[in-house]
Amino acid sequence: MMPIASSARGALFVASLVCASGCGDTTSTGMDTSKGDESVLVGTFQVSLVAPDTATATPGYTAVIGKVSDGPTPSQIVYTESSRSGVCVLSKPSVPFCNTPCGGSAVCVAANTCKPYPTAKSVGTVAAAGLKTTAGSSAFSMDPVSGNYQPPGGTVLSYPAFAEGDTITLSAAGGVYSPFVLATVGIAPLSVTSQNVQVAPNQPLHLTWTAPGKSIGSKMYVKLDISHHGGTKGMIECVTDDTGSLDIAASLVTELVNLGTAGFPTILMTRKAPIGQAVIAPGRVDLVVQSAVEQAVTVPGVTSCNSSADCKSGMTCQSDLTCK
User: Fold this and answer.
1) CA 134/CA 161 separation, integer angstroms
2) Does residue 125 register a pLDDT over 70?
């Protein structure tokens, strides 16, 4: 389990203050006021800065979406650490097999072990503060629609919807579970400065981006996957301080390339504010404020394609989107 950042602990403290003022004594309403395991993620509210796309003349926007369930969401792919260097880890995937199919309501998470998908639950009206709308307001409320929380129709958020360091809070009134408060701070949109990134054996990977203007405890999350269009064979993930640069060791890069490649490999870099957290009956709910940039990378010897017309004479486009 990742340690809880200081601001996340602050969010938990804020939530405890709110409950201390009365939300804990609600059993007569049928609310579950117990506290679950904070290591079990059961809900996420995500605030994402989506950068403008100059190629399509699409303006930037701020997106908000949230969901809380009665348990964790199982994954059908299990990643196991293979190698580690500094803040980066290379993991390999495996898909567990169940002799008896799990059906559409569950997933095979280990040998002959099915785990059901959780059910979305209402946590009541969620009041957002610190997110500016194009109409000039900095507050709005969200109610669940088909289990998901999003700004109501007609509410359009500015880009960005906050300044770096601004306080952002989401306050859930309570529904099936007791009320809670999530809090964190705004970040600056991510600007990646490393260009023409090449992923080659025996070479470290140097990444750069514009460092934040304020020290708010933000982190950079990096995911390098060069085989996802052919069925992921491995990936490198890094979590580092938001200082403006990161070097991924040549040993990890070499191992990743040797595992296999596919067409259109990419690297995903994401700046995240300190994650706000609260604990309710089934587990932990996170507030994630992020700005992500995904870039294409080149791998020597790999030519990407959508059709054989993209390949040299005598080569054809394969199912993994490479020319061979």
Assistant:
1) 9
2) yes
Strands (E), the chain: 41-50, 61-68, 78-85, 88-94, 106-110, 113-116, 126-129, 139-142, 167-172, 180-185, 205-208, 219-225, 235-241, 245-248, 266-272, 276-280, 283-296
* Residue 32 pLDDT level (bands cut at 50, 70, 90): very high
Helix (H) or strand (E) holding 8: helix 6-18
**Which two tokens mark 231?**
């069925």
Among all chains, which residue has been given the structure tokens 């946590």?
123
CB 182 within 8 A of CB 275: no
Give the number of residues written for the chain.
Answer: 324
| pTM of the model as a whole | 0.87
In the numeric block, the tokens 């604990």 are attached to: 279
Segment 187-233, tens digit of pLDDT = 999 999 999 999 999 999 999 999 999 999 999 999 999 999 888 89
Cα-based torsion angle of the residue sequence 167, 45, 273, 205 in order, rounded to the nearest 10 degrees:
-160
Both tokens assigned to 36: 């679950």
Contact 282, 70 (CB under 8 A): yes
DSSP 8-state symbol, 243 = S
Sign of CA dihedral 118, 120, 122, 123: positive
Residue 285 is predicted with a pLDDT of 98
Residue 6 has pLDDT above 80, yes or no: no
Cis (ω within 30 of 0) for the bond into 160?
yes
pLDDT at 17 over 70: no
Find all residues with CB under 8 Å of 283, minimum gap 6, and list them. 36, 37, 38, 39, 40, 41, 42, 43, 71, 72
- CA diameter of the chain: 74
Nearest residue to 177 (alpha-carbon basis) of 26, 37, 8, 4: 26
The long-range contacts involving 100-107, CB below 8 angstroms and separated by at least 24 positions, are 106/74, 107/74, 107/75, 107/76
SS3 assignment, position 269: strand
Q: Which residue has 């129709």 as its token pair?
A: 153
